[in-house]
């Protein structure tokens, strides 16, 4: 049920708000269609029907199906990175923060393979992934360095390596090259590279991790 507008609300304000809400509904509907069947099965008519928006209205928001898909995937990258990064930073130990974040990104590929597969095929996907991840990864590594938890000589190189490793792990899971313990194995190697003792890195990398509602 649509929210009633105040009688004296400016027409321009109402128009922009409705346009924004319609765009958000299209993005949400497209994300669900992509998650259910991938890009090959996405039809504009299915998206507009699910969003309860007229077919012709679609083109006032997106110039093509490809533009819609790109917008969805950029939003997914940003929202998933923010959710995982924010939760990860709640841990007191930088090593646990890093392990949790890495493992949750790998789990994303296993839990939402259709969406993750389309995301990895986006033009410049690796760079876009790095951009979305960077603010949270930087905070984690800086905290680990300052506390003496991590021994990292070149922060910028470490950040690039973390992003590349995470993206490669997602693609490896999608391709079926990695087993079910890929998240823990990768996190363990990462922690050891940061100077965490081997036994401790292994223990941290295999701790239970809280679930996140990545569909939210």
Structural class: mainly alpha
Helix-strand sequence: HHHHHHHHH
End-to-end CA span: 20 Å
Hey, roughly how much beta strand do the residues contain? under 5%
Averaging pLDDT over every residue, what do you get?
A: 87
Extended strand count: 0
Count of separate DSSP helical elements: 9
Name the poorly predicted regions: none
Share of helix among residues? 55-70%
Sum up the overall morphology in one term. Answer: elongated
Estimated radius of gyration: 20 Å
Largest sheet: none
Structure commentary:
The mean pLDDT is 87. Helix content is 69%, strand content 0%. The chain has helices at 11-37, 44-51, 65-88, 94-111, 113-121, 125-147, 155-175, 182-193, 198-205.
Any chance you could write out the topology, listing elements then pairs?
Layout (H helix, E strand, L loop, with lengths): L10 H27 L6 H8 L13 H24 L5 H18 L1 H9 L3 H23 L7 H21 L6 H12 L4 H8 L11
Helix pairs in contact: 1-2, 1-3, 1-5, 3-4, 3-6, 4-5, 4-6, 4-7, 4-8, 5-7, 6-7, 7-8, 8-9
Write out key terms for the chains shown.
elongated
Give a nutshell description of this structure.
The protein has helices spanning 11-37, 44-51, 65-88, 94-111, 113-121, 125-147, 155-175, 182-193, 198-205. The protein is mainly α. It starts with 10 loop residues before the first helix and ends in an 11-residue tail after the last helix.
């Amino acid at each position: 049920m649509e929210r009633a507008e105040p009688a004296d609300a400016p027409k321009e304000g109402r128009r922009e708000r409705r346009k924004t809400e319609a765009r958000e509904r299209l993005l949400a509907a497209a994300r669900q269609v992509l998650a259910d069947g991938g890009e090959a099965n996405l039809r504009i008519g299915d998206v507009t029907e699910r969003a309860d928006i007229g077919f012709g209205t679609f083109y006032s928001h997106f110039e093509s199906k490809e533009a819609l898909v790109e917008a969805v995937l950029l939003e997914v990258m940003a929202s998933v990175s923010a959710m995982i990064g924010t939760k990860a930073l709640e841990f007191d130990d930088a090593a646990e923060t890093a392990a949790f974040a890495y493992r949750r990104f790998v789990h994303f590929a296993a839990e939402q393979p259709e969406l993750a597969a389309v995301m990895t095929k986006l033009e410049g996907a690796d760079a876009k992934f790095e951009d979305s991840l960077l603010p949270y990864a930087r905070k984690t590594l800086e905290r680990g360095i300052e506390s003496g938890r991590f021994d990292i000589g070149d922060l910028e190189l470490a950040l690039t390596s973390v992003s590349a490793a995470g993206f490669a792990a997602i693609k490896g899971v999608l391709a079926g090259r990695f087993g079910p313990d890929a998240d823990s194995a990768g996190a363990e190697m990462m922690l050891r590279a940061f100077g965490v003792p081997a036994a401790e890195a292994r223990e941290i990398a295999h701790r239970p991790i809280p679930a996140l509602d990545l569909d939210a």
